[in-house]
Amino acid sequence: MGYLLYFAILIIVPLWAQLRVKSAYKKYSKVASSSYLTGSEVARRILDDNGLYHVNVQETRGILSDHYDPRSKTVRLSSNNYHGRSVAAAAIAAHEVGHAIQDQEGYAFLRFRHALVPVASIGSNFSWILILAGMLMGMADLLLLGIIFMAAAVVFQVITLPVEFNASNRAMDQVVQLGMIRNNEERATKKVLNAAALTYVAAAAVAVLELLRFVLMYVGMNNSDD
Predict the structure, then answer these.
(1) Where are the transmembrane segments (predicted)?
(2) Cβ contact 44:59 at 8 Å
(3) Residue 170 pLDDT > 90, yes or no?
(4) Which of 41, 59, 96, 185 is labelled catalytic?
């Protein structure tokens, strides 16, 4: 029963977070912003106001595939947000520009996350192989190695939280200061940003829970050997 509840949490929590994002986005993508600027115009205006003239704004394929690429210094917005004039489009565009501002200022958590990328990538790719091998062969040392690799990926996800929340806070400050949204639109903008942040919280919570489960498994394996 305990394992069923555990796996239910692993499945339900991320799904719930995704549904919240889609629901908020669907609702506020139909609400035009008072400024009537497209997402690309919102991004460009915030970038220019912060002296980031060298950062490009490009359209990208997909739905909610918006992101900031620090390597090419480019804010990429999905088509609906690039061309859209909604509250949701403005919120998401401003959020991605928040990452560009972090990059320009050398925001500590963002720099730390970038440094962890290769380690986290290796950890996520190899941890499960080592963990499964350790469990099947009853080798505690191999299981521990897998846990260490997994821990690197988990740290990456945890560090992502302050990066995302800070970008959202910067986004709210920018759209308010530049008059891109009115007072009655602030609540809607926050709902879009908070819903998006929930996906990162859910992912981090599930990752930590999984790591804890394998740590307890390792402790139990060592105790049984004694």
Answers:
(1) 6-25, 115-136, 142-163, 192-216
(2) no
(3) yes
(4) 96
